[in-house]
Every structure is written in structure tokens, then in C-alpha cells.
Amino acid sequence: MNHSQAVVLGEMPSLSKLYVNAAASAARRRLLGASSGKKRLPAVSHEVRGVRADVENLTAYQHLVGETASDTLPAGYVHSLAFPVSMSVMNREDFPLPLLGMIHLRNRIEQLVPIQFDQELDVRSWAENLAGHRAGTQLDVVSEVRAGSSEDLLWRGVSTYLAKGVFLPGIDKPGSPHGATGASEFVPPDPTALWQLNLDAGRNYAAVSGDFNPIHLSVLSAKALGLRGSIAHGMYLASRALADVGAVKAESFAWNVTFEAPVFLPARVALDITTVQADSGNWERSDYVAWNPRSGRRHFTGTVAALT
Amino acid sequence: MAAADVTTDGPLESATHPQTTRSAVIVGGNRIPFARTGGAYVKSSNQDMLTAALDGLIARFGLQDERIGEVAAGAVLKHSRDFNLTREAVLGSALSPETPAYDLQQACATGLETVIGLSNKIKLGQIDSGIAGGVDSASDAPIAVSEGLRDILLDLNRAKTTVQKLKIIGRIRPKDLAPDAPNTGEPRTGLSMGEHQALTTAQWKISREAQDELAYNSHRNLASAYQRGFFDDLITPYRGLNQDSNLRADTTLEKLSTLKPVFGKNLGSEATMTAGNSTPLTDGASTVLLATEEWADAHGLPKLATVLDGEAAAVDFVHGKDGLLMAPVFAVPRLLARHGLTFEDIDFFEIHEAFAGTVLSTLAAWEDEEFGRTRLGLGGALGKVDRAKLNINGSSLAAGHPFAATGGRIVASLAKMLHEKGMVDGRPARGLISVCAAGGQGVVAILEAA
Questions:
Q1: Higher per-residue confidence, A28 vs A273
Q2: Which of A68, A244, A248 to mutate to test the interface with B (most CBs of B within 10 A)?
Q3: What backbone torsions phi and psi does residue A113 show, to the nearest 5 degrees?
Q4: What residues of B are labeled active site?
Q5: Which 8-state DSSP code applies to residue B269?
Q6: Which residues pair with residue A158 across a beta bridge?
């Protein structure tokens, strides 16, 4: 994918405006028919320079996801810093898929170097890997965070999203669906933690992350988008798991999460974290899995692993 | 190990042979800069700040994944959910999660008492390493519900039927909804700490000028300590602060003299205590690494000073026999006597500046012949503290005073000063710490250069 053409935005895009814009274009699609006819991702990246964390917002984020309010930005917080830039890419006129209702399938973050809260950062995002999925069309949105005005890559995130039910001409579905069989065989282990998520979990995370996607805010707004109730943000759940892994992790790490069944609010979520040590005794990685303690349905799985 | 000798000697004998115990050395310390309340740490909790101070200490001395013998810390303004504050901070830090911890609370003496308690455990052979500390946030102070509402909520919890519950809810009156914020008032007298000190300040006839001069020296000394880099290996920045935000390097005696009195305004004598010569409410945290000499050597870490001994005292302040913050006046002569020392044998005096008036009243009591005879049971005055040895790198008036964090600040700074001083007349340099506390208490300690 050619994303060499960089559009430098003058300021951090407003997520609320992006969501309003996305809602308007969703309505337009509904009126004018589904397909925009575009089947390629925009060959540009969006960039915002000189981004800085707001310390009060950072502290609120840290407290909400269970991190200590240290001066180092949690990897999930960097994701929320970069999120408006990614959203602005997906909100472009020439973006081929509807932004609203997009499902977060997977996320991979590499925290290469710890980032301090007062560092100036350049954030660049683009979309790539448009591909068929048995339930629609998927793509990767890549974000890279560098130390201000330098080429030093500090953080890299790849979010894989699915536009459910959207099939673009010329992009084939993959052959046999895989992974579904693995999910059905899941036998819940004994949990290491049990989370009680209230109805306001979505609103609370929206307040600190800025991600006011209506599917997370209330039963009503979620129903308007075809869900039976509001669901927790995937990155909120993954960030809590990352916080639960705790200070044992190395300074540089890769953090993966694969989302399966959404967590409808309110909810109890069972979590198991397994720590794997290298022969040296040093921490190598922590694997986590979360499930619904009543139904045994798996919500998400992931790993936090040392980067060497 | 020496500890084994102690236990085989039997408890009675071991108590009479303190020389058989090991010494507890101060390896170093770390704190975050102290911030005036409502400032840089406004949203940070006690746990956040204690963890930040702890993580800085861990980084400085390479303690990642280290199982420390025990960590002891505390906070004065503490939410009930923080019952395991120190253990939670340990779990959130890079220390081994197999490091035990306990909370301690002795008002403003909390920090110093954690140092004494852990050094005693080290001396007794119970642990080889320990981290002492303290934290306080006046910004993120716990707010309790009123007694009336608390009573109703507890009844509600016990109620079984809906009718019972509705009846109980019906008892709530608007006045019950007023929150109950912590304050510095003494429960038995209703007087704030400042008002109590104003009584003592007047009793000892401490002048406004003397108090302002002490405050001025505190700022000047702290500023010059920062300037020559004294705190470079004692502090890690947090939330954008690199030094104590209360420090006014450019303050002058003239500026201090223009401030209006805030305490003691209704006493018969002139009111002399201002915001300038009283400590402000502050947020912050401090930690101190203690160990046996062997542990420090095995880890390739410095040995700055040893904790020689500590002493606690309390005064009957409730009906005014002594001032609220005067307990150290009694603790110090007892501690000195136990070691056969006088003020001549002390090279640094670290007297916590709760108020300038506290320090000056304490010094005045020690200089008073009659007080020495009648109250301290001495032949005369305890002695005169050489001002050139008093709080030479600044103290709480300039740095601020996050209650439980002050002890750790003083111990780490004094240990470094003693190490720099080394030997004096063929003996290790000695420092005396004196910390007053609410409830008419005081804790004092002597450190020696290692």
C-alpha cells in the first residue's frame, strides 16, 4: 500500500466532529444506496505533529484502567492519543468503508520505548491491507508515534477492523472460515480476576479516551446502531488486562489482543493471566484470556510479550 | 549472623547487650518534589505518589525484581479503602511482588517512625533490607459522609424489607448530606494545629521577626541546596515538577514581614504567625532504603549513615500543661542521655519546621534553665543549638510538609549530609532529627555517618 503521500493536519481532529460526520455519511449511504463504488484505500497518511498528553486526562485514564498514575504513558493511552488521527483517515471522502458500525477485530501495539507524559509526539496514521473476511471486509489502520520532529519510532499500533456485511467488488472472501472451531472448544480456566463492569463503563472510558462511539454510550444509542445493548470498548478491556499484567513487564513490549464476543454492559468478566518466564528467570510474556463467567463464552485473548 | 547470637542469649540478656545487634545503614533515599496543595499533583492519589517515589528509589539502586525484607510507609490523610496502601504501592512497583509491606500511622511522625521501626527489625536480624516511607495528599483528601448519614446507611444495609428500607431512607435530612472533610483540628480541643502553636509561640514569647528570619533561612538554604545539586540523587521529578513548588528562592525578610497573621489573632498578645512562617498544605511522598552493611555491600550500594537510635515522647497538651507540638523537647534529652551525648556531640540538627514558632519554642525550652530543672529533670538548661548547624539545607517551611512524607525527606537528606561530613574529631558525624506530631506526640532520632 502506498501511503507515502502525507497530509499534515494543523491540529488534532475532533473526534466528536468525526463521529457526526460519520453518522451523516452513514445516512447518506442509506439514502443513496450502499456502495460508494470505491474499492481502494486512500493512498495517504494523516499526520499531526507536536501532540502532548493532557496530564489531568492522563491521570483519569490511568485511574480508570487500573494503572498507577506514573509519568510514563500507558501503551493504551498512546492508542487513544493516536485514535483521532486514525479516525480522520477512515473518515475521508475516499475511504471505501462505512466508519460507523465497524468492528474492532484485533489490535497489536509495540511499545518500543517508554514515552513520558511531557514528551512532544508526532502521530501518523494510514490504512492498509484491505481484505475479504467471511463476514464482510477488513482492513488495518496503522499508527506510528515518533518523538517530536525526529525519526525515532516510539510506539506502533495496528488496529484491524471489520466492516460487517460490506462486500466490495473485486475483493474475495477467504475460503474456509477458521478460528471459529477454536472458540467453541474453549474451556474456561480458573480466573485470576473478576471484573464488575457497570452500565457506565462505556461512558467512563469514552470520557477519558474521547471515543464517543454511540455503541458504547447507552442502550438506546447502541440499539440505534443495531446492537441489543451498549458494549464495553475493546481497548478499555485490553487496557485493563495490560494494567493487570502490571509492572513485571519489560520497558519494550508487544501487546496483542484478539476480540471475540463483545461485552454487553453491565457485565461480569472473568480474566486469567498466565505469566511465562524465560530460563533466566526474567519475564518473557503474559498471556491473558477473558470470558463471560456465566456462559463461558470467550470475550478476548491476548499476550503482552517482551520485545528484544 | 549477629541475630542468631541475640536469640541464643535469651530475650532478657539480649536487651542488656545492645552491642551484639547489627547496625542498620541508610543506603539512600528518593522522594518526589513536594507540591503545594491543588498544584501539580492535584489528581494524584497517595498510592500514585508513593509508587512514584518508590519506583524512583528502585531505579536509583537497581532494585527491580528484588525481594525487600519489608516495606513500611503510611499516610496521615488516608482513605479507608487504602488500608493496604503500602502493599498496593509495592504491587504497583517494580519490586518483587513477594515483598511484604505494612502501613503505619503516627500523624506527622509517621515517616520517621517507619525508619526507626524498620531499622530496629534490621538490627534484630529479622530483615536484611527495608524501605521506609510516607506520603500525603491534601489535594486528594478523603471526604467522609456525615455521622448522621453514615448511621442511616449502615441501618439501611441491615434492613431486610422494602418497607424497612423506605422508613430508613425517610430519616435522611439535608444536613446529613454535608460531607465531613478532614481538618488539622485536635479532636479534644477543637483548636487547629496553628491555633495550638500560637498559644505555645506566645507562651515562649517568640517574636515575629525571629519566626520570619527562620522562614527566610529555610527558603535560602533549600534554594542553595538545589543550586549546588544536593538533591540530584535524592529526588526524581513527577508530573513535571523538578523541585518543591513551595520554594521561594527570591523571598526576602521584607516580603515575609508584610504578610498578615493567620493564627493567634484572638490571643491577648500580638499575633505573629503568618502563612510565610507556617508550612502550607502540601502533596508528596518520600522513601528511604535501609539495610545491613552486608546487604549493602553485597548489592554494591553505598552506606551513607546508620540509624543509631530513636525515641518517642508525648505531652499532656489537652489542658495546656505543654504545647501541642512540644513533645520532642522531652524526647531529645532522653535520647541523648541514653547515649551519653550532649548538643556538643551533634553536628547537624534537623528540627521539622511545622511552624517557625515550633522550632523556636523548642529551642527556647532547651535553653531555659528553669524548664531544664523542673520539667526535664536536668541540672539546668539542656543546651543551646548552634544555629549554623540547624536545618542547613532547608526544611518544611520552604520544602512544604506532606505530613507522613516529611520523615523520609529529612532522613535521606541528613544521611547524605553525614556521609559528606564523614568523621568529626575522630568520631562519626552525628545528626539529630526532631519531628513533632498531632496529638501532642513527637519522635526523634540520631543518625551517624557510616
A1: A273
A2: A68
A3: -135, 135
A4: 108, 401, 436
A5: S
A6: A108, A142
Q: Which of residues 224-253 of B touch A (CB under 8 A)?
A: 237-240
Residue in A with minimal Cα distance to B92? A247
Least confident of B34-48, B175-189, B306-320: B175-189
Q: Residue B92 and residue A56: Cβ atoms within 8 Å?
A: no
B43 in contact with A, Cβ within 8 Å = yes
Q: A-chain residues within 8 Å CB-CB of B52?
A: 68-71
The confidence score (pLDDT) of residue B2 equals 42
**Domains of chain B, CATH where assigned:** 193-229+308-449 (3.40.47.10)
Counted residue by residue, chain B has a size of: 450
Q: What is d(CA A98, CA A104) in angstroms, rounded to the nearest whole number?
A: 13
**pLDDT tens, residue by residue, A57-99:** 999 999 999 999 999 999 999 999 999 999 999 999 899 998 8
DSSP E strands: which ranges in chain A?
5-9, 44-51, 103-111, 121-133, 136-147, 153-164, 193-197, 253-259, 267-277, 283-291, 298-306
CA distance B225 to chain A (A): 25
Instruction: Identify the closest residue of chain B to A54 by CA–CA distance.
Output: B239
Say if B51 is an interface residue toward chain A (CB within 8 Å): yes
Helix or strand or coil: residue A139? strand
Distance CA A304, CA A250 (A): 9
Q: How many CB atoms lie within 10 A of CB A156?
A: 18
Size of interface A-B (CB pairs under 8 A): 41
pLDDT tens for B74-109 read 999 999 899 999 999 999 999 999 999 999 999 999
Contacts of B152 (CB under 8 A, 6+ apart): B168, B169, B171, B172, B176
